[in-house]
Amino acid sequence: MPLGQPSSAVHVQNVPAGSHSSQPRTPTLVTLHPVALFSILDHYLRRMDKQERVIGTLLGVRNDSGEVEVRSSYAVVHKETAELVAVDMEYHRTMYELHHRVHLKEAIIGWYSTGSNLDTYSALIQNFYAQETAPHPAVHIALNTGVEEGQEPGVKAYVSSPVGVHPKPENCVFVPVPCEFRFHDAERSGLDLLTSDSASPLSDLETLAESLKAVSSMLDRVLGYVRSVLSGEVKGDPAVGRYLMDTFGADTGELEKGGFRDSLQDTLMVSYLAELVRSQAEVSSRLALVTAS
Amino acid sequence: MSAAPSMAAALAASLPVQQAAPAPVAPTYEAIPASMAKVIDIEAEIPVESVQLDGLVVTKIIKHSREAPSSSAHGLLLGLDLDGTLEVSNSFPLPHHAGDEDDKSTKSVARYQAQMLRSLKEVQSDDSVVGFYQASTMGAFFSQALIDTQAIHQDKLRHGGIVVVHDITQTARGNASFRAFRLTKAFLDAFKKNNFSAPSLIDHRLTFSTILEEIPVKIRTNALLNSFLDTLTTPTQSHLPDASPAVASTSSLPPSFSTLDIGAIGLIRNLEQVNDALDAYRTEEGNLAYLQRQIAREKSRADAYIAKRKEENATRVAQGLAPLPEEDVSRLFKIPPEPSRLESMLLLGQVDAYGKSLAGITSAGLVKMYAAKASSDI
Asked: The whole model's pTM is what?
């Protein structure tokens, strides 16, 4: 699931056979978790008026296969003028200590900045972070919020490599790395909540009703398409027809119906039991009040 | 549990002191115009009616709850109250202190909290604590620690803090659940006096359902987040021709239909939990009954003594002698105090909560099973 504009470029990397997992390798893939992404957006919202872009640290874990997971992020105080750039290293250290106490496995992965321009300052900051993440290369994520004109919202990830005859900290080349958005199942339902239209969390039955409505509308669309093909209005696409047949043609003849019925009975019984337990608890608590001393 | 009260005390010590309203500079001050009166609410007069959670807080709480070992995830909520709505704009997790190393761990938690608040202030985040959040499984969140912390918060914070409870199991099933609670006044009264005996419960009309009152929760995503989420969910066409439906149009956040899965996951565990909670409740009730019997025994002995005394006095008066003084009975017979029923009330609350989540799971499961039955003619 690419973030932002998908490109047709293919990322090729030469991985030597039998390489040790502890050797620092360039990351092959950067996956971003929702928490990190939303923290960055929140920090961008809270920036002061004079700041054009904000930077912060990325935290996460590295896999053996060269994949880098960015799990969370925090903002770092920094100042940028035409002549100088200053990053508050104390603050960065302190926040990392605090963060480490709660999430023990996460290490410093790199840094982020909003705005997608990569200039000398980015190279300097990249150099600083490379020292922090040594021996692994530091990952830089440039997040474009899409607030300015002509810029699409998206996220791009880079690692740096030195360039030039004499490598200097201010010069480096940013090599793009594929970046993806990944989340766990539990976070999935949280994201559903955020993207849904309702303002407040719904009960189980209501979310079920929403999903069923969505499926029902999809079925209506498919039905409309099939009907129009049958009546000859639209030329049927054989590929689509085959996919539809695969999906809907599931045969329930061989299914074990007895097991299903038993399971249904069990669920009914458990439901009755739950109501019974609840009413018992209520009665018991009131009885405790009634006992006259 | 000695760890809980001392941690609560350390939290109380570390909470920021209430800032006094700034004194007016000019000798003649203007009253706040009526239109702004609701925004600038210095005396915390407008009661909090609803809670608004920011999208960032939602994801942070989910992430922390998922990663913490067992359901011990808890942390603080930061934000501001505005015209009757408590807006929570940020949150951070608190480190989990394992074991009861009383002093050291509670002090370090307090230090962590102070440092975190200071750091957040430097990046222009809100730094006023408005409550705390707690992860729970299967809806059972009645615990002594939670009530202690909430009582302290309600004392010290501006509007009385709220506690947001996040149910991990329900979120795993596909429906993120966030509920906000506050201790009721009746319960707070009883808690302050630390008297949970039967007569005091009757006075305050306390049952497990009146310990906490629920406050409606709203979820808000700011405009930037909204637009970003839109970008993530819009499907993009694949450039490859003849792509199968799975990859023809992809988006970073495709809609999920995990709520439609049929399966009795969690039902068995839930039943086990109900069993355990009921057993614990029965034990507790047994203890209470034992204590009650002791009290009754002592009382009956004291009563018998008084009756004997009265008889003796009556006979003595009849014989014309001076009556013996009626000694202070309470010094002779030490009647133990009424036992606290808080624990059993909490356990009942747990049982009820398990029952409620069980009912929720089964009703959704029934709907799905009947739908499957109807559509595939089983």
From this structure: 0.78
The CATH number of domain B50-225, selected from 3.30.365.10, 3.10.20.30, 3.40.50.2300, 3.40.140.10: 3.40.140.10
Kindly state the DSSP code that residue B24 receives in the 8-state scheme. Answer: P
**A288 occurs within a structural domain:** no
**Contact (CB<8Å) B176/A146:** no
**Are residues A99 and A219 located together in one domain of the fold?**
no
Euclidean distance between CA atoms B111 and B117, whole angstroms: 10
| Distances, alpha carbon B233 to alpha carbons A3, A195, B93, B251, B286, in Å | 10, 9, 29, 6, 56
Query: What is the rounded distance in angstroms from the CA atom of residue A22 to the CA atom of residue A64?
Result: 8
Return all residues near A117 (Cβ < 8 A) that are at least 6 apart.
none
Mark which residues 250-309 of B lie under 8 Å from A by CB: 250-260, 264, 267, 271, 274, 278
For residues A175 and A200, state if they share a domain: no
Write the ipTM. Answer: 0.81
User: Which of B50, B181, B203, B362 is the mutation pick for testing A, counting most A CBs within 10 A?
Assistant: B362
B239 and chain A in contact, CB less than 8 A: yes
Q: What is the C-alpha separation between B352 and B364, in angstroms, rounded?
A: 19
CB-CB contact of A76 with A87 (8 Å): yes
pLDDT by position in tens, chain A (length 293): 455 555 656 666 665 555 444 556 677 888 888 888 888 888 888 877 777 778 888 888 888 777 888 888 888 887 877 777 788 888 888 888 888 888 888 888 888 888 767 777 788 888 888 887 777 788 888 887 777 666 677 778 888 777 777 767 677 788 888 888 877 777 777 777 777 766 676 777 777 787 788 888 988 988 888 888 888 877 777 888 888 887 777 666 666 677 778 888 888 888 888 888 889 888 887 877 776 44
Report the run of H or E that residue B272 belongs to, with start and end: helix B267-319
> Left, alpha or beta for B174 (phi > 0: left; psi -120 to 50: alpha)?
left
